[in-house]
């Protein structure tokens, strides 16, 4: 089999370093916000699963500001998606390295190649699992949360190693050419970069069919397009209809319940019969409340966001009973935690709330939204709404709450 030949006259250390600099500036933010989102799930939630010593230090996720999880999750998913064109362009620019032979001539070069392979493999795994998770409902044969989390740590290790090895090369390459000059260079004046020791510049370059300015414009246009097709799920409004890359959460209800829903009652196995007249909220295993009795208690209204791990979020006006008021009725005036159970079955049928979340003045057992009763898909007869809490733990179809003093 003959050697694979790459003849693009655009490839070279400078172009690769431009893409690398963008990723170096942005990918750490994607990583940090992703890790913070795992912290936000809190203690005892089994997200991620058993990852041994890779578990992050746990601290109580704050309930202030109310938009905190909306910000971290929106940045993680949104920025991760808009960087996909840059990642693909960077991979295209270094693809000759993947076919270099012999693969390594020294220990340092072998370490570089291994870090490169792990970097490429892990970032493609993170992109693929992330995109599939926001597109489809639980399509994996493994836990998305655990797999995505472990893949992130492989990426972090490879990224740090690769940057440590290649940062001096990137800095030299960026200084070798002027970005302003390249953006002013038309197709007819485009020439290959000087031959380099890394083998990125083609030995026998073909005539250019696109200038570097044009290539950067194509990649920048891809970033802008993905941004337009993504931002609406966080910003909302008319842009939400353009969010083709985040179709989950596109099943709104009617009237006051017209906002996204990630999982319908049918998908959760919750029926109207289970939420009808026989339904009772059990508090600390002793007290029971009908929905009418809950409505007769002092009601509190708050306008709060709800943000989902798939990247969409929305802000609605919720009305219900403060969780701290329910705790007081249960004989726990100073609750240290709350364990919420749902009528649904599966991994998200229970949630644990920390002290700041239980006692926040806007933390509610919501009964109504935007002046109307919750619909069945949105959690009727009652759901939890807590500021800055991941949407998956704003439990719908609540059947019981246990308040603890510690």
From TrEMBL:
PROSITE patterns: PROKAR_LIPOPROTEIN. Residues 185-206 are annotated as: Disordered. The keyword Kinase does not apply. The chain crosses the membrane at residues 12-36, 75-95, 116-136, 148-167. InterPro entries: Mopterin_OxRdtase_euk (IPR008335), OxRdtase_Mopterin-bd_dom (IPR000572), OxRdtase_Mopterin-bd_sf (IPR036374). Keywords: Membrane, Transmembrane, Transmembrane helix. Pfam families: Oxidored_molyb. The keyword Transmembrane applies. GO terms for molecular function: oxidoreductase activity. Residues 277-404 form the Oxidoreductase molybdopterin-binding domain. It comes from the Bacteria. PANTHER family: BLL0505 PROTEIN, PROTEIN-METHIONINE-SULFOXIDE REDUCTASE. This is Oxidoreductase molybdopterin-binding domain-containing protein.
């Amino acid at each position: 089999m003959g050697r694979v030949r790459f003849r693009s006259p655009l490839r070279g250390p400078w172009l690769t370093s431009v893409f690398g600099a963008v990723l170096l500036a942005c990918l750490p933010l994607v990583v940090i916000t992703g890790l913070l989102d795992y912290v936000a799930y809190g203690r005892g939630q089994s997200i991620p699963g058993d990852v041994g010593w890779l578990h992050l230090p746990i601290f109580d996720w704050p309930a202030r500001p109310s938009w905190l999880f909306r910000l971290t999750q929106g940045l993680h998913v949104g920025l991760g998606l808009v960087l996909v064109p840059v990642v693909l362009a960077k991979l295209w620019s270094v693809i000759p390295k993947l076919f270099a032979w012999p693969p390594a001539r020294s220990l340092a070069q072998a370490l570089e190649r291994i870090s490169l392979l792990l970097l490429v493999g892990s970032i493609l795994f993170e992109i693929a699992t992330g995109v599939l998770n926001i597109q489809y409902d639980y399509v994996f044969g493994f836990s998305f949360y655990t797999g995505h989390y472990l893949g992130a740590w492989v990426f972090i290790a490879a990224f740090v190693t690769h940057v440590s090895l290649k940062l001096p090369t990137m800095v030299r390459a960026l200084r070798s050419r002027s970005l302003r000059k390249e953006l002013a260079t038309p197709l007819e004046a485009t020439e290959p970069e000087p031959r380099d020791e890394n083998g990125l510049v083609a030995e026998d370059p073909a005539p250019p069919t696109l200038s570097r300015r044009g290539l950067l414009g194509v990649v920048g246009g891809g970033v802008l397009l993905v941004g337009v097709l993504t931002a609406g799920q966080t910003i909302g409004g008319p842009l939400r209809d353009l969010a083709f890359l985040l179709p989950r959460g596109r099943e709104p209800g009617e009237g006051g319940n017209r906002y996204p829903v990630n999982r319908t009652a049918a998908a959760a196995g919750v029926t109207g019969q289970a939420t009808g007249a026989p339904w009772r909220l059990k508090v600390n295993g002793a007290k029971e409340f009908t929905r009418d009795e809950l409505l007769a208690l002092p009601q509190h209204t708050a306008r709060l966001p709800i943000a989902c791990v798939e990247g969409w979020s929305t802000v609605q006006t919720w009305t219900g009973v403060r969780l701290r008021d329910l705790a007081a009725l249960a004989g726990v005036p100073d609750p240290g935690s709350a364990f919420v159970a749902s009528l649904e079955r599966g991994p998200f049928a229970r949630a644990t709330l920390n002290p700041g979340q239980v006692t926040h003045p806007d933390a509610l057992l919501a009964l109504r939204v935007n002046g109307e009763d919750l619909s069945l898909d949105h959690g009727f007869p009652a759901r939890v709404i807590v500021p800055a809490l991941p949407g998956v733990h704003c439990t719908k179809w609540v059947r019981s709450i246990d308040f603890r003093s510690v």
